[in-house]
Records
---
Amino acid sequence: MKTIDVCLSPELMHLYPVQDKTVVVVDILRATSCMVTAFAHGVESITPIANLEECQNLKLRGYVISGERDGKKVEGFDKGNSPFEYMGEQVRGLKIAFTTTNGTQAIEKSKGAKDVIIGSFLNLNAVAKYLLLNEHNVLVVCAGWKGKVNLEDTLFAGALVDKLKDYLGPDCDAPLAAQHLYNIAKDDMVSFLNASSHVRRLNKLNIHDDLKFCVTPDQYTVLPRLINGVLQLR
Ligand code: MLT
């Protein structure tokens, strides 16, 4: 049986060898939800970048630059980090350079993996299907918040473990913990997450609409993959 493991924070990645694994990077609020939404609406590519200045410099090379720090859009950037900014005809065909507080850092740390894909509730089924057909063991990398564990990424990991439970076995206790948490929360994830640190942070910034959308399963069927450092649909 193939295995599934969950790394609850990128700071724990040294414990998980990834070179022979498929890594699913998840940042439910909101980086990977934005990425999935953007691809579903026709963007051509997203180049995830850890460093702010490096991302900024890509503007001169014709990229749309998107970014957030501490939940706020970066001054001078074209777009921030709400999925609603990545919908509609205006995003079709764009090449986006994207930097976020945690999501793009987690992608950076996953680069040594056999395969890196982008997960969110919005494309949960597409992720699960891909992992079923793929031959490698799986590691879900939760982006968390500045090295700390968060609830929303853990819930996604749990949803995936639960969906794949008949096909992929847990590699340690983190997938089981995530699965239990998901089963407690699944009937009303919005209420469950209201007490979470990032929802409280977003509320303080007057960002109220993103949560409900970001925890809605299977809005899209796209599966972004990291190929030569660039996210694309293949
Ligand atoms: C991140 O990468 O830390 C975020 O997606 C934060 C946010 O904008 O909500």
---
Amino acid sequence: MTPTRCDRSPAWSALQAAYKMQGQAFDLRQAFAQDADRFETFSQSAPHVFADLSKNLIDAATQQLLFDLARQTGVEQHRDAMFAGEKINRTEQRAVMHWLLRNPAPAPVDIGQVAIKNIAYGAPAKNLASALAQVHTTLQAMLAFAAAVRADDTITDVVNIGIGGSDLGPQMAVLALDAFVAPGKRFHFVSNVDGHELASVLQSVKPQSTLFLIASKTFTTIETMTNAESAKRWFLRQGGTDIGRHFAALTTNVVAANAFGIRTTFGFWDWVGGRYSVWSAIGLPLAIAIGADGFREFLAGAHAMDEHFRSAPLEQNLPLRLGLLDVWYRNFHGFSSRSIAPYHSALKRYPAYLQQLEMESNGKRVDAQGETLPYGTAPVLWGEPGTNGQHAYFQMLHQGTDVVPVEFVAVKQPKHDLSGHHGLLLANALAQAQALMVGKSADAGPPQGGAASSGGSEPHAMGERGGNVLSGGHKNFPGNRPSTFLLLEALTPASLGALIALQEHRVFVSGSVWGINSFDQWGVELGKVLAKEVALRLSSGNLTGLDGSTAGLLARLRA
Ligand code: F6P
């Protein structure tokens, strides 16, 4: 049955009315002053992640309407269909089962029976149980391979060649879990077809001590194949002989990997989307970096979040609450972007990872039935680790003309013992969230710590009551700018797994409310096709039929 489109649901109309009545004039400072329990009411614990949602422009009644919206648009049924293995990716006729990759094995797999090489999956699994058995057979083989590489002192460098989901996930995670990475191994990620990237890595490695991982779900992506061919040529030119030992492929297309000359392959399945594939064989660089136990913890953290998403009531379901907040901001407040502010330097690729997750999943202008949508979908995501972002673009977040919700991530326990740093880092994260909310009028003193969180009523905290205008000037901070604060006890494989699964499910929720297929990416096709054609024209010089701009640029490049 086709679910009700969100803008045709009664809850949508009720939310529009709520926005007009109180949403657009909602004032966070007032909300805290009037409700001493606001922090508790709008906080949510989930596995490994505590979320403070209280600094968002939302009240309990609006949140209830958003839960109604979720019910009326069939989010729970859609979620259950995903967890039942139904083919909810309709444009590609595929199930969406990245969550199965982190499901514990029903029974231990006997590693003695598992051949490490050419782990592939002939026949598609008949049911979830056999798919899960295949998952664990592959996982065992991949982890055994990872253990062997870790134990092999002659391999000092691991070069992952892949792009999009075959790069961002493992790269983000290897960097994030740097504190857990085995000493003696260096990890490199080559994604760009720009030869500068590969050339610079090749200058720093030696063929006899390097393992190349060719990561591509399809094994056809032009950037990855071009880089892989160049790496192979370089390897042979440098006197490398044993491709079987120095190259492995992570792919669903084992046939193409074999044709490339790679004999060691770890596969996965068409029901794993590229941007959801870090849990699969695509995670091999991470498994080598943090070891089998670490990788299993990463999966377990994500699984705990899966169980939370699957079973927690809507009112206490963190991915659901975040996804609904995203809809509230995008479609009622009209906010078109979200800034990601991880206060941990190891999370430097987390914003880029989330960009693909959110924008490739939900950057769609038609619904799952192909009907053009009259409402906005994915926001633009962007960000940098704090405190760096503070000295670059936070000016705009505090005083710019657009309101941009900010999503902080902070980690309680550091992994270093340098005194003074971590407290300062955490203080900065808290202070930025506080400053965005409380603001400051030009004539007031600096914000007082307890003003908002204690429900206090200092004048500066109330400066915007009834509207968004403080008396003018460059020293005014309007405040009332929303943020979410995610807090991890420590950055570990388990908490990172949970955080990423949380983000996956939150994207699922908003996509589901919007009625779009979050699991295809047809929007990348046109550019790929045209790039091939332009490449031919670049060498032939044939400009016939081209638009004036492309023809002009091509001519200049050939001159
Ligand atoms: O072009 C987009 C895309 O298909 C992404 O969805 C994917 O993560 C990336 O390209 C890489 O694809 P592959 O893993 O098949 O090389």
---
Amino acid sequence: MPNVAFVNGVFVPLAEARVSIEDRGFQFGDGVYEVIRTYKGRPFSLDAHLARLDRSATALDLTQPYSRVDWTRHVLEGIERAAYPESKIYLQITRGVAPRDHAYADDAMPTVVMTVREFHPLDRSVQATGVDAMTTEDIRWGRCDIKSVNLLANVLARQKVKRDRVFEAILVNAGLVTEGAISNVMVVQRGTVVTAPEGARILSGVTRGIVLDLARHMGFPAQERFVSQAELYEADEVFLTGTTVEVLAVVRIDGKVIGDGRPGLITQRLAAGLTSLVG
Ligand code: PLP
């Protein structure tokens, strides 16, 4: 079955999946989500994604309808039904259907949706050359640690990415680099890997955590602190981390060349390290 959908416990073809126009996800962006990919048909770091889904739901006082065991069963069934070589799984929980009112009822019944689509990894040539990025002001709300479906600021940033034909928008808040619109951002300064600290200003990426562990294991010091936009331009290496981008070198930002304009050695080592973890 191509493009599988799952709505409130029932698998249906994607084209037949429906939710109400009074769903609070639709009217208020009142919900949370996760994106997971498979390697060799198996979901990668599913437990970490489900743990973050729990954290996001709890932060919004949203009732998590399924246990991690239930979710794991549904995700595995979705992957099996879709039967793609590699899948991208999208999970979403919203506060459910109710007459429009900003405040919510304590007994709201959440709407749960999952889709499973074919995942096409980035072309290896993109990894070999690295990508261009741009900076843009981080205009997001004060709880970026919650993976909420309220993504307007990210939508606007990604539209600029499309307009300027670059790969990613690096978000800058009061002169400090927070993260990408769909990724975390890391820089290398004299052999040290530096990335924004966990907290309300960034999404704690699953890949970010794995890559920081990898760096430390490989003997590269890693620091969790904000870098300024000036430090970003002057870094020896810059790279993105994320479920879909993995470890991806950024070789130009706002037209300025980073390092020698090629993926740096530490970026390459970490990319290879991640590949060997998933393989
Ligand atoms: N930051 C933002 C804003 C994201 O949307 C994402 C992924 O979608 C990430 C970081 C990377 O998170 P992960 O590594 O869990 O995919």
